Amino acid sequence: MSKPRILIPTPIQDADKLRFTMRTTYIRSVIAGGGVPILVPVSLDAATLRELYDACDGVLLTGGDDVDPARFDEARHERTAGIDPLRDEAEILMTRWAAEDDKPLFAICRGIQVMNVALGGSLVQDIPSQCVNPLSHDGNYYGPSRDGIHHTIAVVPDSRLASILGAGDVGTNSFHHQAIGRVADGLVVTAHSGDGVIEAVEMPGRRFLLGVQWHPEEMTLERDDMLRLFRDFAAAAQVRELA
């Protein structure tokens, strides 16, 4: 296969818990970026997950519900919800493997939080109640469309993210109530929102290990800068296949 294979851990997310589900915007964006999406159920055992991980060229972590705070040694906040132990375990394993192997990994929304926890960091479990003067970070659930700009972020110059989006202010959508707290060793913060909430991290020296707190996959039809995130990710994964 000439195109890079992108593994997407796929959880059970529908209300009746009878289906593994994945939003089509992730699939569409991976394809538009030049990759081939490979959906993998999170309920598989670790050995099987490893076989499938080894057969793919990159990993995409997607949005969803909250990470179990026991994973970063905290009690559960009253607003922490939707914990899925199977998903936490599968995604944390794959993040650690990718960091060890220098396999490209792109983490979106919940994904950036999983990445940080997997590598030893913590989370803010509820921005509205735990941050000082926070912006609204869940605005696209209630107001603008999923691809609408809810607030801006400031991208740090001379970062991998800046090489893709450009440095300075970038408009993003926003769908979350949790965020990165203590940053894991090895990760560098490359974007903040105006209230100080961390909006992106990356690991320098890696081919592509990058997480964003917003949802670029919802914006790739209209925004070339958001599509470039998927293109850069796929290009990094392509290098492994050709090596």
SSE arrangement:
Blueprint: E1 5-10, H1 24-33, E2 36-41, H2 46-55, E3 58-61, H3 85-101, E4 105-108, H4 110-118, E5 123-124, H5 127-130, H6 139-142, E6 151-155, H7 160-165, E7 168-172, E8 179-180, E9 188-193, E10 198-202, E11 209-212, H8 224-242
Parallel strand pairs: 1-2, 1-3, 3-4, 4-11
Antiparallel strand pairs: 5-8, 6-7, 6-9, 9-10, 10-11
Helix pairs in contact: 1-8, 3-4
**Percentage of residues in strands:** 15-25%
Roughly how many Å is the radius of gyration?
A: 17 Å
What is the helix/strand order?
EHEHEHEHEHHEHEEEEEH
CATH topology: Rossmann fold
Question: In the residues, how many domains can be counted?
Answer: 1
Total number of beta strands: 11
How large is the count of helical segments?
A: 8
- Characterize the largest beta sheet: strand count, sense, and whether it forms a barrel: 9 strands, mixed
Overall geometric form: globular
Helix content: 25-40%
The average pLDDT value, as a whole number, equals: 94
Can you tell me the CATH class? Alpha Beta
Flag low-confidence runs.
Answer: none
Please identify which CATH superfamily we are dealing with.
Class I glutamine amidotransferase (GATase) domain
Oligomer: single chain
Describe the strand arrangement of the main beta sheet, using strand numbers.
2-1-3-4-11-10-9-6-7
Query: If classified by CATH, what would the architecture be?
Result: 3-Layer(aba) Sandwich
Measured between the Cα atoms of the first and last residue, the distance is: 14 Å
- Summing up helix and strand content along with how strands pair, one would put the structural category as alpha/beta
